[in-house]
Amino acid sequence: MAKQKSNMLRFGIISASVIVGAIIIIVVVYNLSMKPSKAKTEEIQKEAKSYISEHFGSSVHLIGTVYDNMGNMNYDYAAKAEDKKTGTQFVIYRSGETNKLVDTYVSQKWSDDIRKDTLPYVHKKLGKKADVLAYYDDEIGEKLRLSPSAMGSYKDRDAYVTVRVSLPRKKKSTDNEQFKEMVSYLEKDLKIKSGQLIVGYVAENGEILEDNEWHKTFGSQSK
User: Fold this and answer.
1) What is this structure's pTM?
2) DSSP alpha helix (H) spans, the chain
3) Of 17, 106, 145, 181, whose CB is crowded by the most CB atoms within 10 A?
């Protein structure tokens, strides 16, 4: 009986040790996966420097590296750059579809411009605490064959954009009409040819105040 208890105790200790060891291995592997590779970081930085020399002027320079190991972006590694002339920050990465280096300059510049042009309207109609962001396809410049020096305005192209407003309050009965007026503003005043407006009720601390967002597609691609 004593021998049986001793064997059971030994088995329990071994099992616990195996479990603890497995957990340690999982934690170590996870932590390693969270850290960017020095070699790959240096590689994208080197490639981006050559890319900037070929496609941009002297006002653009590298300011860092972006590493995405969660699959949220179109890349794992990207070089972050800034155009001092316009203040536009963007990334340069190797496309998974074409394996070519591409940049998000056009996408980011147009997104920044729409935010700047829309924010005064949003603050006037919805209050100073409301915020707005715009999103284009990261590779819209590549797809439309646009260069940073001859990209023109977002108003000149029928490129689909998502405009998202964060409104830190609950719904009101007048919201539907007010948001439709904003869609009209985006189409008629800003000359956006195709896109969608999304309004989310989100507190400043990130708490979602309403489960359902308001959504409206507009322009040429909504017909």
Assistant:
1) 0.81
2) 2-34, 38-55, 105-126, 140-143, 175-184
3) 106
